[in-house]
Structure formats: C-alpha cells, structure tokens
Write a structure and sequence with these properties.
Helices cover 59% and strands 0% of the residues. The chain is mostly helical and 181 residues long. The chain is elongated, with a radius of gyration of 45 Å.
C-alpha cells in the first residue's frame, strides 16, 4: 500500500505509469496503436464484431389504441399518428432497400456466372487451338522422319553401287581474311 501511495495513483503494484501521448495526426495515432499492440505480441488483438443491420420494430400483434374516424380527436392523437406514420415509412424504406440489395446480389452472382462461363469457353477454344497445333507439329515431325528414312534407304542403295568418295574437309570456310583491307 505504501508503494502505491508513493506513485500518487492507486493501481497495480509493479506497473509503471505510461506517459500520456496525444496523437496530432492520424498517422501518429495509428503508430501509437501499433506500438501498444506490439508491446505484448502474445495478447490477441481486439477485432470488433460487424454491426448488425438495422431492422424495423416488428408490428404489434394486437393494436390497443385504434384510431377512429370520428371528428374531434384530441391534441395528443396527432403525435401518435405522426409516430405511427414515421415508423411505417421507415419499415417500407427498409423493405425497399432490402429488395434492392437482394436484386443487386442476384445480378452480381449472375454476372459472375456469365464471366466464368465466358472464361471457360475461351479456355476451351485456346485448348483446342493448342491441341491442333500440337497435332500439326507431330504430323510434320512424322512426315519428316519418314522422308529421311526413304532418303537414307535410297542413299544407302546408291552408295553401295557407287565408288567410295574421298572425305571432304569439315573445316568451315572463313568469312573474312585477316590482314587484308
């Protein structure tokens, strides 16, 4: 108790008081919040719940003060009528907003489906094109191999009949000569 009295403020023993820092800019405020969070990284950060959507008050099951159409209503009846009218208008506005939101959500989901279908169609078209090119290359390669085989067989039959030729020099012909201008 004597230790708390020395500090001047009652509080937890052993905890040092933090100096009060007032943020002057939003960036400084954010920096201070981050510093406070990072002092103890093991402590979970507070994540606020998403606020619930506003719903109008449910209409009463049984209405006790039914307004009649008789003349000479009291002065307080107007205010009751005004509040009832305001609540009804709020309820109708809420229902309109909800229907508009549902319509937008449905439109969004429909657009996503259309985009996915278009992407799948493009992918299928490109895949078909790639397969066609692959088949074309494969057919060209097979044709080339067959033509080489026929040429080799023709050359081997002609080589056996002809005289053996001298080996030619495999060195490349220089494209320039050093020292000449």
């Amino acid at each position: 108790m004597a230790a708390n009295a020395k500090a001047g403020k009652p509080g937890k023993p052993g905890k040092e008081p933090q100096p009060l820092i007032i943020a002057k800019t939003p960036a400084e405020e954010q920096r201070l919040k981050l510093e406070r969070l990072m002092r103890n990284p093991d402590k979970p950060a507070p994540i606020p719940e998403r606020p619930k959507d506003w719903n109008p008050r449910a209409p009463p099951e049984f209405v006790r003060d039914v307004m009649g159409s008789s003349a000479g209503a009291g002065s307080g009846e107007f205010h009751v009528y005004r509040h009832l009218r305001r609540r009804e208008y709020q309820r109708q506005d809420h229902l309109d907003r909800m229907s508009e939101k549902q319509k937008l959500d449905e439109d969004y989901l429909e657009k996503i489906k259309e985009n996915q279908q278009a992407a799948e169609d493009r992918t299928a078209k490109r895949r078909k094109k790639r397969e066609k090119l692959k088949q074309k290359k494969l057919m060209a390669k097979k044709a080339k191999q067959e033509s080489e085989k026929t040429e080799d067989s023709e050359q081997s039959s002609s080589d056996s009949e002809a005289e053996p030729k001298e080996a030619e020099d495999d060195a490349e012909v220089p494209s320039f000569v050093m020292g000449k201008r």
